[in-house]
Structures are given as structure tokens and as C-alpha cells.
Design goal:
Layout: E1 9-12, H1 17-31, E2 34-35, H2 43-50, E3 54-57, E4 62-65, E5 73-74, H3 79-90, H4 94-99, E6 106-109, H5 116-125, E7 130-134, H6 138-150, H7 156-162, E8 165-168, H8 172-177, E9 184-189, H9 217-226, E10 227-236, H10 241-244, E11 248-249, E12 257-263
Parallel strand pairs: 1-2, 1-3, 6-7, 6-9, 7-8, 9-10
Antiparallel strand pairs: 3-4, 4-5, 10-12, 11-12
Helix pairs in contact: 3-5, 5-7
Keywords: Methyltransferase, Transferase
EC number: 2.1.1.-
Protein name: Class I SAM-dependent methyltransferase
Length: about 270
């Protein structure tokens, strides 16, 4: 693949460039990206020179720069760590409770994003369960896939859960359309950046890459077709999507986001 066709370029951090070069070259080759030597050039200089998103390989993480003077995007479990520790301590999490996850469940996180929900769902589904995270952005899915594989999780159970997650880089509707009817237990939708819920400033670099098409009637029908138990929607509290598509809301009056569900056993499409 040529530099013109490549959607991103890969380079190394300024330090340890020689040591990091083999991984940078492998990452570029596997994904059809262009690998360039750092040569002490600044991030802003490389962004302007190549006019493409820049993936920077360091000893501890893979960073994505999309615009000049913007903080990089890299994998971090963020709030998932707090939720995970609380789940281990109390055995409770609002999403896990509403999803009614059982050991061995097969779950599709149809809007994976950073994979926080996927981590908790994978833990709840146990060693015989399976979680597939679907992310339409090629660069976001790459960052998250590499992060789940290599990030030093704060608790061992998170690392175990991360190993059970399969990341699929495709559109949700395309992925679900290929699945057999009643072939998974639960499908989750958690659209990013649709409401007023504030996030980390470090997420700014990923905003241009996010698919903001939202939940459509066709996508919901496909989710209800393949899910044996429930289709879940996690969205900000004032979202009109819950009412529009007939989701039953959980009781979370004081929360800044809500969880709604459709019981597919009782729904007729």
C-alpha cells in the first residue's frame, strides 16, 4: 500500500527509537500504514508534513495524534478501573445487572469505543463466555486492540477479562447482519459523544474518528433478531432514543446516564 492510500503513518517515540523500530515497522506492515523514521522531528512537524493521523510507538503505549497541538489518544481503562474494582467488591454494576449476564453468555458490544463496558461484560460472562467488541473506526479499534493486549491493568481480573474480548473493525450493522438469528445472548449500544456527559480532554483526538450515525431502526431490528435475551442502550439521561425505539428504562433517576433494555423474548419485530 502506498503512502497516498495509507490512512495513517507510524513512527517511534524520540527515545529508544532503534529499539522500537521493529514493532513500528510490523504495525505498519500489518495495517497497510507507512512507517517513517522519527529523526528527532516533532509530532507537529510530522503531522503537517504528512497530513495524516500519526501513530507513535513508545515503550509503554501506542499513541494516536490527529491534529496539531492536540493531546494524543491512547488506550487507558479510565473509569472502567473504578467500576471494575467496585464490581469485585460488591458484585454489582448497573450495566451488568440490567444485562443479567450469566457465565457462558455471548455478548456483542456493538459500539465498543474504549471497551470499558466490554471489560466488565467479559468478566461477568466468565471463562466460557465471549464478548465481541465492534468498532467501525480502524484507528480506534487498533488502539483499543493493542491496549487490551498490552496495558498493565490495575487488577489481575481486568487482564483476564481483556483476554476474552475479540475486537472487530467493522460497522455494527454489517457485523450483526452476518450473525444467525438468536446466536448471541445480549447486544449493547453505547453511542459516544451524543450527549452532555463530559469526558477526558485526552479523548479529543479520537472525536474526528468516531462514527456518529447513531442507532437506526434497521440496526435495532438486527440486534433484536440476533439477541436471545436483551438489547441494551446506554445513553445520556435526556436522550430521546429510549422513547423513540421503545426501550424500558432502568431506575436511575439521579444518574447522568441511563440504561434501557428491550426484552427480545417478548418483542415482535
Amino acid at each position: 500500500m502506498t503512502g497516498v492510500e495509507s490512512i495513517a503513518v507510524v513512527t517511534t517515540a524520540g527515545k529508544h527509537a532503534e529499539q522500537l523500530s521493529p514493532y513500528a515497522e510490523k504495525l505498519a506492515s500489518e495495517n497497510g500504514f507507512v512507517c517513517i523514521p522519527r529523526n528527532k522531528k516533532s509530532i507537529n512537524y510530522l503531522l503537517q508534513e504528512y497530513g495524516k493521523p500519526l501513530l507513535v510507538v513508545s515503550k509503554t503505549k501506542l499513541e494516536l495524534y490527529t491534529t496539531v497541538d492536540e493531546a494524543p489518544f491512547f488506550y487507558h481503562p479510565n473509569a472502567a478501573s473504578l467500576r471494575f474494582k467496585q464490581l469485585l467488591k460488591t458484585g454489582r454494576d448497573p450495566l451488568i445487572s440490567e444485562a443479567d449476564v450469566k457465565p457462558g453468555d455471548q455478548i456483542v458490544d456493538a459500539t465498543m469505543g474504549l471497551g470499558a463496558d466490554s471489560l466488565l461484560l467479559a468478566w461477568a460472562a466468565g471463562s466460557k463466555g465471549e464478548v465481541t467488541g465492534v468498532e467501525s473506526s480502524r484507528l480506534i479499534s487498533l488502539i483499543v486492540r493493542e491496549g487490551l493486549r498490552s496495558y498493565s491493568m490495575p487488577v489481575p481480573e481486568m487482564k483476564t477479562a481483556a483476554a476474552r474480548i475479540t475486537v472487530e473493525n467493522t460497522k455494527s450493522e454489517d457485523y450483526l447482519s452476518l450473525l444467525d438469528t438468536d446466536s448471541v445472548d445480549t447486544v449493547l449500544f453505547d453511542p459516544m459523544f451524543t450527549g452532555a456527559v463530559s469526558g477526558s480532554s485526552g479523548l479529543s483526538a479520537m472525536r474526528p474518528l468516531v462514527n456518529n450515525n447513531g442507532l437506526s431502526g434497521y440496526l435495532l431490528e438486527e440486534a433484536c433478531r440476533v439477541a436471545r435475551k436483551k438489547v441494551l442502550l446506554k445513553d445520556y439521561s435526556r436522550s430521546i432514543i429510549f422513547k423513540k425505539y421503545g426501550f424500558t428504562l432502568a431506575s436511575r433517576a439521579s444518574a447522568n446516564y441511563q440504561i434501557g433494555y428491550i426484552d427480545t423474548k417478548e418483542r415482535t419485530i
